[in-house]
Design brief:
- One of its GO terms (biological process) is carbohydrate metabolic process.
- GO terms for molecular function: polygalacturonase activity; rhamnogalacturonan alpha-L-rhamnopyranosyl-(1->4)-alpha-D-galactopyranosyluronide lyase activity.
- Pfam families: Glyco_hydro_28 (PF00295).
- Belongs to the glycosyl hydrolase 28 family.
- By secondary structure, the protein is mainly beta.
- The protein has four helices and 26 strands.
- It folds into two domains: 25-214 and 424-440, Single-stranded right-handed beta-helix, Pectin lyase-like (Pectate Lyase C-like, 3 Solenoid); 236-412, Pectate Lyase C-like, CATH 2.160.20.
- The chain has a 26-stranded mixed β-sheet that branches.
- The relative contact order is 0.11.
- Residues 1-16 have low confidence and may be disordered.
- The structure holds 2-acetamido-2-deoxy-beta-D-glucopyranose (NAG) (5 copies).
- One 2-acetamido-2-deoxy-beta-D-glucopyranose (NAG) binds next to strand 8 and strand 11.
Length: 446
């Protein structure tokens, strides 16, 4: 039943990629064109099994890529350690072919690789096996993040594996026309292990798997025209928009075909005080199994210090075709009750134009309540009528008739990875949402 609905929604949504994004994403020239000129790190002071491949990456970039637009910075297959972090600024029409596997051994904070002010750029592994091991367990919350892409245009990150960053895994800091796909991200079972945090304009994120206990694929402000689809949060904190505070500006966002197994939530919008808006957002085709929360809008989020302002305005937000169940519902101890649907909106900035369409959320305990506060729209405990603040309204629900236990994926994890031991390196899967094919084949198959 649900599969049919999702298939129909997908069919109707075919033109959405075009409508949602406002132009092409990714590099404008092909990898093969850039392979005509190779900047191999082994010719710039690097060697396989190097104790610090960082300087060779920096040198190949400065002395080869920047001097010859249309080049590929190449890290050949093999293992490398890295101590010295690299900021690669200003490249145009270039690729970073990361076929090697780099292990963090340096302890500085910051980012191992920053790509900044690049245009027509791509970082990828042609074997779909290259990537980074951070051994974050040795240096928890006191080391580098892996990759930051800053203010770049027409770029992609794909076919890479990111394991156990001491801190976040991938940060996209504004820029436009980015595409991130075919990624496996595996962090520790704790906070501060964010998968992908992304801001900017006209970005497409698809076919990504994240294991951690913090952000899966999360939109940060400012953001407009994002399409985020086929995301497998495999024991993760879950995806979110936020945290938002002063002058938030998030609009025209579509998340669709999001599969969440375990972890915190199927989707959360989080803020505490602040100002600005989140508007024109569609959350379509969500499946969740065993999450703590399902649909969670919390504008009094306790994980955040209250920002200046009456609250972020949430407007015109639709949740469509959701199926899932959380693990805690109406417990006898009401202080730990977790509602499958929770809209805790700010009294100074009520949520308006919220639509729940075929949202079938339930709780594994067999009883549940939904809760709404200052939230207006259509569905469950959302109120209609004049937009005036109201106190939390708790609604006892029964199992939605269309609820079905969502399918599992082979490889769903039962729990996250331990904090005190090395995390094994995964391969990049080829399915990220039950029943849907990957959008682009893995690079190693091309
Ligand atoms: C990083 O810290 C670890 C543990 O303190 C230490 O063994 C290692 O030598 C340090 N690495 C560098 C490059 O200093
Ligand atoms: C980005 O790509 C578009 C075409 O898709 C092109 O019009 C634009 O000039 C490019 N921007 C930069 C900074 O290269
Ligand atoms: C509401 O948001 C949807 C996207 O979910 C968008 O298509 C629609 O144009 C928005 N409506 C208004 C009035 O902006
Ligand atoms: C309810 O659970 C919370 C959190 O586990 C605990 O601190 C509190 O003491 C419990 N209250 C009762 C009445 O059992
Ligand atoms: C999800 O869990 C399965 C089972 O362990 C594993 O094969 C897969 O690689 C996991 N995904 C990630 C990103 O770790």
């Amino acid at each position: 039943m649900l599969v049919t609905k999702i298939a129909t929604a997908l069919f109707l949504g075919c033109s959405l990629t075009i409508a949602q994004l406002i132009g092409p994403v990714g590099p404008t020239t092909s990898p093969s064109a850039k392979r005509a000129h190779i900047c191999n790190v082994l010719k710039y002071g690097g060697k396989i099994d190097s104790l610090d491949i960082g300087p060779a990456i920096g040198s190949a970039f400065a002395n080869c890529v920047l001097k010859t637009p249309g080049s590929t910075l190449y890290v050949p297959p093999g293992n490398y350690d890295m101590v010295t972090w690299q900021t690669l600024t200003g490249g145009t029409t270039w690729a970073f072919q990361m076929d090697g596997f780099i292990t963090r051994t340096g302890n500085s904070t910051g980012h191992m690789i920053i790509i900044q002010n690049s245009a027509d750029f791509e970082i990828y592994s042609s074997t779909s096996a290259g990537g980074f091991q951070g051994h974050g367990y040795l240096i928890r919350d006191n080391g580098p993040r892996f990759l930051r892409v800053v203010s770049s245009t027409n770029w992609s990150v794909h076919d890479l594996i990111f394991v156990d960053s001491p801190e976040f895994h991938i940060v996209v800091d504004q820029g436009s026309n980015g595409e991130l796909y075919n990624l496996a991200i595996r962090g520790a079972d704790m906070g501060g292990s964010d998968g992908i945090d992304i801001s900017g304009s006209n970005h497409w994120v698809h076919d990504v798997e994240v294991t951690n206990r913090d952000e899966c694929v999360t939109v940060k402000s400012p953001a407009n025209h994002f399409l985020i689809e086929q995301i497998w949060c495999n024991q993760s904190g879950g995806s979110a928009i936020g945290s938002l505070s002063r002058n938030a500006a998030v609009q025209n966002i579509v998340y669709r075909n999001i599969y969440t197994n375990g972890g915190n939530q199927m989707m959360m919008i989080k803020s505490n005080g602040g100002s600005g808006f989140v508007r024109n957002v569609l959350f379509q085709n969500f499946l969740g199994r065993g999450t703590k929360y399902c649909l969670n809008v919390d504008q009094y989020w306790s994980g955040q210090t209250a920002g200046t302002g009456a609250g972020v305005s949430l407007m015109n937000i639709t949740f469509e075709n959701w199926d899932g169940a959380n693990v805690y519902g109406l417990l006898t101890n009401a202080t730990v009750q977790r509602s499958p649907i929770q809209f805790l909106c700010a009294s100074g900035a009520p949520c308006t134009g919220i639509n729940l369409d075929n949202v079938n959320l339930w709780c594994e305990t067999g009883t549940a309540t939904n809760v709404c506060e200052n939230a207006f729209g259509d569905g469950s405990c959302l109120q209609s009528g004049d937009v005036l603040p109201y106190s939390p309204v708790t609604m006892t629900i029964s199992q939605p008739p269309a609820f079905t236990t969502p399918p599992s994926l082979p490889g769903d994890l039962d729990s996250g990875f331990p904090l005190t031991a090395a995390i094994p390196v995964p391969t990049i899967p080829s399915t990220f949402f039950p029943g849907l094919p990957q959008i682009s084949p893995l690079a190693r198959l091309q």
